[in-house]
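Worked Example 4.2. Consider the chain below.
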Amino acid sequence: MNIGLIGYGKMGKTIERIALERGHTIAFKVDSKHPLHEQDLSAADVAIEFTQPALAVGHMEQCFAGKLPVVVGTTAWQEHLPYIQGLAEKQQAALLYASNFSVGVNIVFQLNERLAQLMSKQDSYSASIEEIHHTQKLDAPSGTAVTLADGIIENHDRYTSWVSEIGQQPTATTNELPITAIREPNVPGTHTIAYSSTIDTILLTHIAHSRDGFALGSVLAAEFLFGKTGVYTMRDVLAI
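Applying the procedure from the previous section yields the following structure tokens:
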């Protein structure tokens, strides 16, 4: 399979290595000096996009117009998701997006929802989320933390919204789920869901040891998306 890389920073280079190891070829590499509109989209079977929130929607629009299936790992653009889903349907395009492509994280997403259901009737416990990432990460809280928060809100009777603060736990009302975003050097990503009471604390934690898990998941997503149309997520890839 020929893969186009939209974004060729640390993540893009890791995806390139994983893709080559799995027998794929790289059709083109997009960076600030080589924008997407200069590329021959027909040379690729699928594109993998890891750039910035301000660029992601435009990249998807270009891929749709060029009939190029695209896997999107950029986060913090999802306010435009209804528009993108409508455009994909109109143009019979192929899109697979996720807040996190790690297989382990997507399993944690499922565990988080089930745990929220179990804890919903336990009034003595209060939930919180902490996420730690490298200092170069642009969005806070992380897309993964937002997905975890949404999973709790959808499955727990108490919480109706979330609040976030960088560096310390925010002050939250009874119905608000607090998210603490911490930025430290050289941290690929750590996410912890905590349910705390005066008696004990229950923790659900995922610790990424490198970018390889995210990169492998994005390549698996590209392999899944090849030859398809429609809008998909990692739940479709992993059949969970």
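The mean pLDDT is 96. The domain at 2-101+212-238 is CATH 3.40.50.720 (Rossmann fold). Compare this with Example 4.1 before moving on.
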